[in-house]
Design brief:
Layout lengths: L1 H26 L9 E7 L2 E5 L16 E4 L2 E8 L6 E3 L6 E4 L3 E5 L5 E4 L5 E2 L5 E2 L18 E4 L4 E5 L7 E5 L2 E3 L7 E4 L2 E3 L8 E3 L8 E4 L1 E3 L5 H33 L3
Antiparallel strand pairs: 1-4, 2-3, 5-19, 6-18, 7-8, 7-14, 9-10, 11-12, 12-13, 14-17, 15-16
């Protein structure tokens, strides 16, 4: 009965983590470029009470199966799901969405690179294209002063139209990064991701090249959180938490009955 209490307690902890993950998904349902996470669990060790045996002895016909009792569950991973979210048209010429695989590459304050799917870019007073948090796009892109309009083609070519001109001039090129295992990227918060040994090195290519998607101007990628699915998972996790708590209550009542034996 003590064993059942520990097993049920591990189930309650697992469901608490599941609800934590669901809560974060729901909180970011309107976050640009957000990718939902999924909690993954596995069973713990098993206590072998009787081993299977094919030996036949006196009065023993052998045991094709043994007796094992599991000791609960544990969290093994929280995996980001990188399905593309719905696209929202904004008409802002510096709003970009990636149609397909790939990440925008940003240079951080420590000169390290971070990666994001959020394409809500801005222009600084010096004309440099940066993220909403002020991190410069890599490779650097500068928009000439007095530019009247910016055109960003699906292959990432950036063109600026100057006053009195009829043909825009090319001012930069957007590059996208992809990873062999994007699920291995480390989340930094703020929609930023960092490469790890598990994700592999970033493979940088122009949009539309083999393995990466294209860029859509005037669009933003919404979160890929499905509210209905998250609500169903929330109900299932809540019920599983409740069932495990009842197991603990039942084991406690059984212990109380045993303690009253004379």
């Amino acid at each position: 009965m003590i064993r059942s209490m520990h097993s049920a307690a591990s189930g309650m902890e697992a469901m608490q983590t599941q609800i934590d993950v669901i809560a974060n998904n729901m909180a970011n349902v309107n976050t640009t470029g957000f990718k939902k996470a999924r909690a993954e669990f596995q069973d713990l060790l098993y206590q072998e009470l009787r081993a299977p045996s094919t030996q036949r002895g006196r009065g023993d016909q052998g045991r094709p199966v043994g007796v094992e009792v599991g000791l609960g569950t544990r969290l093994i991973a929280t995996q980001k799901m990188y399905e593309t979210g719905d696209m929202k048209q904004t008409q802002n010429q510096l709003d970009l969405a990636i149609e397909g695989d790939g990440f925008f590459r940003l240079r951080m304050n420590d000169n390290e690179f971070a990666y994001t799917r959020a394409g809500d870019f801005k222009v600084t007073a010096q004309g440099q294209v940066v993220s909403s948090a002020g991190h410069p796009l890599e490779p650097p892109v500068f928009v000439p002063p007095e530019t009247t309009s910016i055109t960003i083609e699906s292959n990432g070519t950036i063109k600026a139209l100057q006053p009195g001109e009829t043909q825009p001039i090319e001012v930069g090129q957007i590059e996208l990064a992809r990873f062999t295992n994007p699920a291995g990227l480390k989340a930094l918060g703020g929609g930023l991701l960092h490469e790890t040994d598990a994700s592999g090195r970033a493979i940088v290519q122009n949009p539309g090249a083999q393995g990466v998607g294209t860029v859509a101007q005037g669009m933003l990628e919404n979160s890929n959180v499905e509210v209905v699915e998250e609500m169903i998972d929330l109900i299932a996790a809540q019920r599983a938490y409740e069932i495990n708590s009842r197991v603990i209550k039942a084991a406690d009542e059984m212990l109380a009955e045993a303690a009253q034996l004379r």
